[in-house]
């Protein structure tokens, strides 16, 4: 694939795809929707939602699309924004290692709005599979420098992925999809400086809204470039690595689906996935060696270089900031606190936790060989505890719980949904049945 053909090639690949023909991909898509639903209901009481609801109600609009867990509806674009925010509010939603971000919190809100507005859903799961595919390929193509420079991939890549997914769902022509990709690329944004604030999950909502709006612009015949990904002024040159994208973006399209291999990572903890390795490791040390705040002089957390790039907070002031702090996660565990959503709110961190933070130190070691099964590839975390009795104990995690290779069972994802619904078995069963047996319209009626 050369220069000015990336946009055209991507649109052509999407329009000609039939991901619904893959039983394995469809199975994984239903699991993804189930986990998305659990993460969204878990986040439905976040304080930012009420602020967004006030803005939506002030703006007005035709109430068509359900707002998850709110008992209200909004216009398609408004709903995409709010449902995207809600899914990502607790950082409890899935991630994908190729994306280096959160695909479902962007793609599914756009598709929910599309399906509710049109009352059609025959291409819903296929569109979801393709959205994950596009977002993963964009993540692989953009290069690591994009994230390291400060961009938030969920926002910057998500808008294009949502446009591609919604475009497939709504049967856009190849030319219309080329335009939609360009409209979404022009709206791509999101900075990691916003991690630990309400703006971070809003990146997901904005990307979902932008992707859906891009499709609407294309359907309206709005004018724009058919080659927005291409050349020295295009998306990949501006945001990342055009040369790599030309080699990677469309390579072996359709031979397997990224929602299957490597697959989505369904979280067991409501905080940044970059801290999940350390969470598993410290819990192992607590269980096997009796490590506690009271008997620990020092904790070292060993990463490969840049392995903690997403963990922007070393001395968080609130639980919300603590979602992006490995120090806070470890301090909670050392104090016997469960790693549950109520520990990661806007409330100030108590002194009992705050006093432990200075004892936890990050270390970087480029000489340690990553494990072949590491998720993400090349990553690991070692937690090393120096105890007051002179002992030194450590635990290493390369593939944390929930990640592909150490994935959650369907039963565990179901339990995650039931927990998010405060053990409302009837509600959970209705949602599960709609996802697995009936269809998306029935699913929407349960939101």
From TrEMBL:
Start and end residues of each MmgE/PrpD C-terminal domain: 269-419
Domain of life: Bacteria
Keywords: Lyase
Start and end residues of each MmgE/PrpD N-terminal domain: 10-241
Enzyme class of the recorded protein, top EC level: lyase
Signal peptide start-end: none
Stored Gene3D superfamilies: 2-methylcitrate dehydratase PrpD (1.10.4100.10)
Enzyme Commission no: 4.1.1.6
GO MF: aconitate decarboxylase activity
Family per record: Belongs to the PrpD family.
UniProt protein name: Aconitate decarboxylase
Organism of derivation: Bacillus sonorensis
Taxonomic lineage of the native organism: Bacteria, Bacillati, Bacillota, Bacilli, Bacillales
């Amino acid at each position: 694939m050369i220069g000015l053909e990336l946009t055209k090639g991507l649109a052509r690949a999407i329009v000609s795809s039939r991901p619904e023909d893959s039983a394995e991909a469809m199975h994984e898509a239903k699991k993804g929707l189930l986990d998305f639903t659990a993460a969204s209901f878990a986040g439905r009481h976040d304080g930012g939602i009420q602020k967004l609801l006030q803005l939506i109600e002030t703006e007005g609009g035709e109430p068509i699309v359900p707002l998850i867990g709110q008992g209200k509806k909004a216009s398609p674009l408004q709903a995409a924004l709010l449902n995207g925010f809600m899914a990502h509010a607790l950082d409890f939603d899935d991630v994908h290692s190729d994306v280096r971000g959160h695909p479902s919190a962007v793609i599914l809100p756009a598709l929910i709005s599309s399906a509710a507005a049109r009352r059609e859903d025959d291409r819903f799961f296929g569109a979801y599979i393709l959205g994950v595919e596009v977002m993963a390929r964009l993540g692989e193509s953009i290069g690591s420098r994009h994230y390291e420079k400060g961009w938030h991939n969920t926002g910057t890549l998500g808008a294009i992925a949502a446009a591609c997914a919604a475009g497939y769902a709504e049967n856009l022509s190849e030319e219309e999809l080329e335009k939609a990709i360009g409209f979404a690329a022009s709206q791509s944004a999101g900075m990691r400086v916003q991690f630990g604030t309400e703006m971070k999950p809003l990146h997901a909502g904005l990307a979902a809204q932008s992707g859906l709006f891009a499709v609407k612009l294309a359907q309206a015949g709005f004018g724009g470039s058919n080659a927005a990904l291409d050349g020295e002024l295009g998306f990949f040159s501006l945001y990342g690595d055009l040369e790599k994208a030309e080699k990677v973006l469309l390579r072996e399209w359709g031979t397997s689906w990224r929602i299957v291999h490597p697959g989505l990572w369904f979280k067991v903890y409501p905080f940044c996935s970059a801290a999940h390795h350390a969470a598993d490791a410290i819990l192992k040390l607590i269980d096997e060696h009796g490590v506690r705040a009271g008997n620990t002089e020092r904790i070292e957390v060993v990463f490969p270089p840049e392995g903690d790039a997403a963990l922007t907070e070393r001395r968080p002031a609130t639980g919300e900031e603590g979602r992006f702090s490995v120090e806070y996660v470890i301090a909670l565990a050392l104090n016997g606190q469960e790693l549950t959503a109520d520990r990661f709110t806007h409330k100030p961190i108590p002194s009992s936790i705050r006093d432990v933070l200075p004892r936890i130190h990050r270390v970087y070691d480029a000489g340690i060989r990553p494990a072949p099964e590491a998720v993400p590839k090349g990553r690991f975390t070692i937690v090393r505890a120096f105890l007051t009795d002179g002992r030194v104990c450590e635990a290493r995690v390369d593939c944390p719980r929930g990640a592909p290779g150490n994935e959650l069972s369907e039963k565990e994802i179901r339990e995650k949904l039931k927990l998010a619904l405060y053990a409302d078995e009837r509600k959970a069963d209705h949602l599960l049945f709609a996802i697995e047996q009936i269809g998306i319209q029935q699913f929407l009626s349960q939101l």
